[in-house]
Amino acid sequence: MRIEVKGRNLHVSDELREHVYKRFRAVDRQVSELAELEVELSEERNPANPESQVAEATLHLKGVTLRAQSATRDMLHSINVVSEELAVQVKRHRDKRRKRRESRAGAAAEAARGTTAPPSAGDATPAT
Prior knowledge:
By secondary structure, the chain is an alpha+beta fold. The protein is 43% helix and 26% strand. It has one domain (2-95): 2-Layer Sandwich (Double Stranded RNA Binding Domain).
């Protein structure tokens, strides 16, 4: 997975970049190598907003885009929350695809066998 870390109104230090790579390692294991993750870190400059540290993550997969956003007082905490939210979304997406694939494979197997199986000798009941 390719990870791109961007900063808006904020300088992205090497320590912050390494933290992003470390936290999104779980997501990296669950998606293909072709996936692209964009993490945008920003600082809201509004003094009335106490939760000014914002982390947004956008994961581009084949056919679907997953997004998560978090705003807290601490940037590291925002990154942690976003990575957990995205990991849950990826797991839900994978389970959904797996279930759909299994149901289609089961339906194809049923169609190949034929839906009506001939009754066995033990199943037949004698007519009275």
